[in-house]
Amino acid sequence: MRSLRNKLVIGALLTGSFAGVANAAQVILFECPLDTSRQKISADFAVNRELGRAWVDVQIQSTDFIGEGLPPVDVIMTRFDGLYYDPARKQVLYQRGAETIVCAEDASVLWSSYLKSTGQCQLTSSTKQRAIDDGFSVHEQTVAVIVLDAQASAQQQARAVGK
Question: Which residues does 44 contact at the CB level (< 8 Å), separation at least 6?
Fold first, then answer.
């Protein structure tokens, strides 16, 4: 378990060096080795409302858990430029150049607050095979990838066309 955590932390640290713009609307947020037969990956927005900060929580969950209760989940907090929480508007915003995209909004049930997605910032997880050269041999490894696909609203797109 400790080895898995170490690999995840190293993967998270390396993410900054691999993160980049896939095209104008997609940003690779996270990449790490994954054992697809024993793990699954997902991602959600998370915030610190008092500090006005937002990030993406990447969850890696074991699928071969034996026992009672829920399987353990490793959560990796992933920050990236342009994502923040606006306490006045109660929204998670993504600033891309001159445009601001609303990714999520505060919602509440009874006395509890949660983030409700607007659908404009899709977090998608996928896997791909990558050739790894360890200095002794080359082998294939499955890599998990989380991508942010940010789409401006129809109003924002109309304003951009009108300029």
Answer: 56, 57, 59, 115, 123
